[in-house]
Amino acid sequence: MKADAHWHVVVLIALAPVIWGSTYLVTSQWLPPDRPFTAALLRVLPAGILLLLLSWHRPGPADRWRLLILGALNIGVFQALLFVAAYRLPGGLAAVLGAIQPLLIMLLAWLVDRQRPLPIMLIACVLGVVGVAILLLSPQMVWEPTGIAAALIGAACMATGTWLGRRWQMNMSVLALTGWQLLLGGLMLAPIAWLADAPLPKLTVLQVAAYAYLSLAGVLLAYALWFRGVSRLPSVAVASLGLLSPLAWLDSA
């Protein structure tokens, strides 16, 4: 029974990167062009407000600075860079670069926690990234420097946030934890979107639906599942599920 429950948790968590894999396709096909920070803001802030309305919890003094850091790493900085990469790179390339997260978490655990990675786990992660690259990359892809830098830095931010989230066990529900990170990250994105992006044009029904999908499925549902996994499974195991994201992009494309 315990093993069945464990696999049930893994399957639910795996839905998060599968949903995230569609972000690149939705962004390139259906969102207004050249508005990465607006897309990130509209994706996270409404979901954060809704989650906190459903699961309000006032964080204690010790948790507030942790929430600020996690909100920046997992949401504010990561989402901004995710959409910069999504607008500038082919979806397959952006997804492959983001798949290095498990390796970065292993590196953090090794350097800071002195937890040497198991050789089999290290080999599995490297082979996973290489395998995904073989499936998705092609000689015709354009390697745009800004997009590549955004994808790599974004992966590093999310990896650090996942690792810290595992270390910082906070006394609140998963929904409240997710909601606070989304709200704080969204508030960080608001002035950047206002200053850096052009105003939105009149949106079509399809564009409104795309923004709603990215917020409700891509953030509200996916992040709640992801942070649940961070609290229950080793951070490397959770991040390894991120290899499903580029494969989901391939399927949706």
TrEMBL record:
Keyword entries, A-Z: Membrane, Transmembrane, Transmembrane helix
Transmembrane helix in keyword set: yes
InterPro entries linked to this entry: AA-Vitamin_Transporters, EamA_dom, EmrE-like
Major place of residence: membrane
KW Lyase (keyword) present: no
This protein's GO CC annotations: membrane
UniProt membrane topology term: Multi-pass membrane protein
Protein localization: Membrane
Pfam families from the UniProt entry: EamA (PF00892)
Superkingdom of the organism of origin: Bacteria
Ranges annotated as spanning the membrane: 7-25, 37-55, 67-87, 93-112, 119-142, 148-165, 172-196, 208-226
Location of the EamA domain: 10-136, 146-247
Family assignment from sequence similarity: Belongs to the EamA transporter family.
Alphabetized PANTHER family for the sequence: EAMA DOMAIN-CONTAINING PROTEIN (PTHR32322:SF2), INNER MEMBRANE TRANSPORTER (PTHR32322)
Protein name: Probable blue pigment (Indigoidine) exporter
Taxonomic lineage from the root: Bacteria, Pseudomonadati, Pseudomonadota, Gammaproteobacteria, Oceanospirillales
